[in-house]
Specification:
The protein is built from five helices and twelve strands. With 223 residues, it is an alpha/beta fold. The two termini are 33 Å apart.
Length: 223
């Protein structure tokens, strides 16, 4: 059983921030894309990207557009999600310096500090080594969050001076930097592979369920 890439549909939260660059990167990965702006846009997705931007503004816009509740529901299931920069903050379990009303979806067992590497003037580009990728990856940091603690189920795929900057936990992938601005699509390719694997698993579970139901019905008819 296989899933072709062009069978996949991946959404990108398109309220604020660098969503267009994510849409372009995913298009280069040969998947269909959806700009997510209203709750109905979350239907029938195989994955979703939460882009960089300003996390408190994004949080307020999620509430204003009626997306906050449904986003939490779909992401807390088995839907793969990729959060970058502000998206990582949205995914975190704890935001040290966030607003009291700021959304933390709690899908990634991590404690984050907003602008943990400094303000806009401290923005930089650093080469990092990523588990599973050959060669370094150019990580673009713009007012990036700093991860100060993670849970036991969180895998660190890349670090910067000992700080986790690329993490994975189940169907969640999160980066402190902006991979969509690097000109390197390998992390988007990694996320697409996660979405394809999850889609295959869902199809297998559905096939197993249908087979079980058909078997049970056949037994009932012959008894």
């Amino acid at each position: 059983m296989s899933t072709e890439r062009d069978d996949l549909t991946i959404g990108v939260l398109a309220l604020q921030g660098a969503f267009e660059a994510h849409l372009e990167a995913l298009a280069r990965c040969d998947v269909k894309t959806v700009a997510v702006r209203v709750p109905d846009d979350l239907d029938d997705l195989d994955g979703i990207v939460l882009p960089g931007g300003e996390s408190t503004t994004m949080s307020m816009m999620l509430e204003r557009n009626g997306l906050a509740s449904k986003l939490g529901e779909v992401c807390s299931g088995s839907l793969p999600v990729f959060g970058t920069c502000a998206g990582l903050i949205l995914l975190a379990s704890e935001i040290v310096d966030g607003r009291d009303d700021q959304i933390a979806l709690g899908l990634l067992d991590a404690v984050v500090v907003r602008n943990g590497y400094g303000r806009q003037v401290a923005s930089t580009e650093v080469d990092v080594d990523v588990d599973g990728l050959s060669g370094s990856f150019r990580a673009v940091y713009i007012r990036a969050p700093r991860v100060t603690a993670i849970g036991d189920d969180v895998e660190v795929l890349a670090s910067r001076n000992g700080d986790p900057v690329l993490l994975r936990s189940g169907a969640v992938l999160a980066s402190a930097f902006h991979p969509e601005l690097s000109g390197d699509d390998r992390l988007h390719e990694m996320f697409v592979d996660m979405c394809a694997a999850q889609a295959i698993e869902a199809m297998m579970n559905d096939t197993t369920l249908r087979t079980g139901c058909e078997s049970a019905c056949a037994t009932e008819r012959t008894s």
